[in-house]
Amino acid sequence: MIGQKLSDRYEIVSELGRGGMGIVYRATDPVLSRDVAVKVVAPELLTPETEQRFQTEAKVVAQMDHPSIVTIYDFGRHEGSLYFVMPLVEGESLRHHLRNEPLRLGTVVDLGIEVADALDYSHDRGVVHRDIKPENIMVTMEAGGGVRIRIMDFGLARGTNVSSLTKTGMLVGTMSYISPEQVMSGAIDGRSDIYSLGCVLYECVLNEVPFTGELQSVLYRVVHELPQSPRDFGAEIDQELEDVILACLAKDPAERPQKSGELARSLRRYRSKLHDSQRL
């Protein structure tokens, strides 16, 4: 698609990345003289029902005004695909940071607070992300040791379950963060995102996700096995933070924090107790 123009407006410049949902391109919007990101959703994901759902949620996400949520500017169709136009976000994904450098404890806690705050905002507006993972969390390290995050793909993971993930090949990168209720195709609400964020925090402190192995083994373990204690595997955290993370990973959604805001408050209380050397 490089060099093509979508809706006689968005000029595709280069590819930024690809995944189970489709391909993300860098594009130029000459009408507003700005660079944007354009996500083209894989045609095999589109049925009349799913396309309507994508568009309905896109309208909701476009109304969101939160510093940690990447909003949607526009959407349209191109050669049978659906595309979404979003801000071009600076920084690197959390996956990039996890691969290249250990995160300080204060950074991990700050990251968890910001993601939880953003999820609380979206859940209050009826939008469940359904695909929280390091690839969808963009991170900018600020001067003085601070961190800023932006969550990608709000509104684009609606309807995601094991069946649809398997069809698109998306499950290979997502299964480590999928909630038990998603595996079982059960009812999904904001507590599913809390589970996924718990997996992300677990990985941040241990550099390992809660469950590994072959596909079917991981899915079985997500539903039936309790995650191991990060401290038992050498994570340099105390019992309080471990308890917060493991609470997010409860199999029963009723046993997790019931609101993302509740999780954010727990992390803030914990952060207030950190020594200065741990915060930066």
Strands across the major sheet, in which order? Answer: 1-2-3-4-6-5
Distance between the termini: 42 Å
| CATH architectural designation of the largest domain | Orthogonal Bundle
The H-and-E topology, N to C, reads as EEEEHEEEHHEEHHHHHHHH
The gross shape turns out to be: globular
> Percentage of helical residues?
25-40%
Fold blueprint:
Blueprint: E1 5-6, E2 10-19, E3 22-29, E4 34-41, H1 48-62, E5 74-78, E6 81-87, E7 92-93, H2 94-100, H3 105-124, E8 137-141, E9 147-151, H4 162-168, H5 171-174, H6 180-183, H7 190-206, H8 215-224, H9 239-248, H10 260-271, H11 276-279
Antiparallel strand pairs: 1-2, 2-3, 3-4, 4-6, 5-6, 7-8, 8-9
Helix pairs in contact: 3-7, 3-10, 7-9, 9-10
Walk me through this protein's architecture.
The protein has two domains: 5-87, Phosphorylase Kinase, domain 1, CATH 3.30.200.20; 92-279, Transferase(Phosphotransferase) domain 1 (Transferase(Phosphotransferase), domain 1). It has eleven helices and nine strands. It has helices at 48-62, 94-100, 105-124, 162-168, 171-174, 180-183, 190-206, 215-224, 239-248, 260-271, 276-279, and strands at residues 5-6, 10-19, 22-29, 34-41, 74-78, 81-87, 92-93, 137-141, 147-151. The protein has a six-stranded antiparallel sheet, covered by helices on one side. A three-stranded antiparallel sheet has the order 7-8-9. The protein is globular and about 55 Å long. The N and C termini lie far apart (42 Å).
Characteristic key phrases:
alpha+beta; Phosphorylase Kinase, domain 1; Transferase(Phosphotransferase), domain 1; 11 helices; 280 residues; single chain; 9 strands; three-stranded antiparallel β-sheet; six-stranded antiparallel β-sheet; 2 domains
